Amino acid sequence: MIRNHHFEKVPSRYLFQEIRQKALQFQQKHPEAKLIRLGIGDTTEPIGPYIASQMELAAKNLATREGYFGYGPEQGIPELREAISKTVYNSQVSADDIFVSDGAKCDIGRLQFLFGPDAKIALQDPAYPVYLDSSLIYRGGNITFLPCTPENNFVPDITLAKGCDVLFLCMPNNPTGTVFTRTQLEQIVDYARKHHILIVFDTAYSFYVQGDYPKSIYEIDGAKEVAIEVGSFSKIAGFSGVRLGWTVVPEANRLKSDWMRINGTFFNGASILSQKGGIACLSQEGIKEVQAQVAFYLENTKMLAKAVKEHGFETYGGEHSPYLWARLKGLTSWQTFDMLLEQANIVTTPGSGFGPAGEGFIRISGFATRATVEQAIQNITKIDILTNKR
Ligand code: PLP
To answer: Is the whole-model pTM more than 0.70?
Structure first.
């Protein structure tokens, strides 16, 4: 039977399936334990009432002869693209360069077709696993890792990407929570321009950025020539199940017609209902609901950061992202994961699953209800006692 032999190089299970499996086994062994899930990083808070009401209205309209329509415009409803241009990019990106999608993950997968089979790929290490897995499934190898560790403040040495064609960057970074300063991002863009590297800039968490840090790579002069930007409504509006994202392919980097062709071939547009929800998110009323969700998860993360720091963990991130990147010196990622599961009944994500430089760390997610966070903080106290006994 035919099989893409590149699958032999891809970890057999997606990281989060493996974590789910471990948690399940633990639960079967300890049915009385109340597991606290701070692993996968999925949103928990209900979608804002205004945003939901607009999706409801859109669904009702589809049930009328006047309001019904089938396939929408392939690139997305113009009103949504205009709203993304205005609200997310301060009108610095043209609505014509924005392609609405069913989510950032799906677009990252489809982008591999844009780069083709011979592309040499560079990745931040650690990074969201989909960059690596989709690259491996598509071309089997040709991957350069750019380590991001406390020693380099989690900012990759861009010169390691020399000779590569594509560099995946995520900011704020999942999992480390790092944001680049304007100067750091200028240096990266400058290097990419000089060395003809295309940057894929994943901004799934850009609404979490606080203060004056850049929120988009297009805030940097010249970036349009070398960067594609991916965005998502999942983590800002609770749309991880609704499904809505976008990708910016600026006219200036000359890949736009190829991307249009790929979308026309592999994709038939995001759901009309999601798009109506997206328009609502970016309206005056909707944006308040979005900001409230982001603030809620950031507060969760702040509370968790305080607790884990007080109990002996070295902790990074969390200020501009819903994730904490933490370690207990001397333990591997899976040892820390097991220890937290067994002693505090908390499910986290082992950092080694995000790349070799993630070894020793775990990622703790702030995507949880407040009650869950409070329970987690209580359970973490138990670890302190046990840790002292180690
Ligand atoms: N990019 C990053 C960095 C993510 O962490 C995630 C989800 O966890 C995604 C993209 C996926 O976004 P979406 O739900 O829009 O597919």
So the answer is: yes
